[in-house]
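REQUEST FORM: STRUCTURE PREDICTION
Request ID: SP-0412
Submitted by: Lab K.M.
Chain count: 1
Length (residues): 477
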Amino acid sequence: MTSKFFKFEEKRIMRKLFNFLLFITLLQITATSFAQNTWITMLPDTGTAIKMIRTNDGKYLAVSTIFANGLASQKVALCKVNNNGQIEWYKKYGAVMGDTGSFSIYDVAQLSNGNYLIAGEYDWYPFLLMINNNGDSLWSRRYLNYSIDTKYGNIIDFNLNEFWLLPIGPSVNHLIHKFNMVGDIIKIDSSFILPNGVIGKILKTAQDTLTFIGWTYNKKHFYNYDTSLTTMLQHTQYYINPQLIIKLPDGRYMIHEDTNYDPQLGYYNGKGMVCLSSNLDSLFKVEFTQYYNYGAIMGPPFDMQLHSHNGLVLCGTMNWVDTYYPYLIVMDSTYHSTVIKMFSGVIPDKAINVFEEPDSGFVMFQCRYTYPRRMYVVKVNSQGNLTTSSNNYYIAGGIKMILFPNPAGNEFKAKFTAEVSGSIELYDLTGKLIRQQQLEQTGEITVCTEDIPQGIYIVVLMNNQKQLISSEQLVIR
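STATUS: Completed
RESULT:
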């Protein structure tokens, strides 16, 4: 009986491995590769990736929050990256009231005057930060006259003298807040209120038109209003759950519905996309399996952008065998996939934003939400492939590190599969650096831990360029 069980279990594992390898092979949908440059740029600090936008000069601004001294202090970090992957500037911004506090960023936009606006909350109150095109702070404001747990988000670049925001949070009234360019509130507009519901998103879809998405119970409401907020142009409601929405060049709206994890099926149940006319009438639905038919393991996309061939580009995270991977999906004008790429064997586990480059390649903001919490701006070619060889700090397992004993007592040894120069760093689970030792062309090092409290720690191996090589968990008893 036992022998039969082990034979069955061996066959099951081999079948699972075969299906995984087949899945990876199928994902490499390739055509003729173009001679496009690819690159990987790792942001200098660890933290939480928020959003990347394309700037007015065609470059990229990546926004994150980073820990300064453990969880007690955070900073907002902005990184300007050019089209060759070079960092033009990287700047950090502390809290308004001193240098400690907790930030949550909900939106970032470049305004018509070229400045960058960061919106969110700081220590449970609405917060705004205005940065010029060189990364210098112009002003920051914390708005204390609002209920706790109110946040600012959904930036509307209204004109050269005015921007609008939508407060978000469980206890806010969802009225539009209008500001001048130095952060003064000039009006809280109550012209538009969704009865018995809340507003979730606002789009400025034309020079004189705003599109609102709100919901009451399980219905989603779509409104088109003029910019005076006094004239409703169109209104409709649907039983859909929008995750992302963009406006197409011909005036239609493409909505990607949210995907739900089905515990019975054991994977994400994708709901596909819905197209609405400029008058908000339903035109057609794009089934999920039309652009992704390799098994429903794709999580909801984090970003959706237009493709130069009148198609769409999606990015997000996939869950396969309890491991998360970034993904890229490119669709043609009929919304059939031409590229499906899962970035397996890399350090990041999510792709947050994606933009198409003039050479038909794609630039993505990728990150890892668990340790080592590294963030990357990555340029791939039109098929989603990397041709650069300088990616040892991006590929997981370039140089492996073995810790022993683990659990450790008064000390532990770290052994590397190749000699390395750089540093070995020990962090606690709040992100605080506990110990750091330099390495000089060595394959092994001993680290003293007798004065470190018992607990779980993260050991990180860095090279001299402060690029992550490897990381492992360590238990000290």
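NOTES: The first strand starts at residue 39 and ends at 42.
Reviewed by: T.R.
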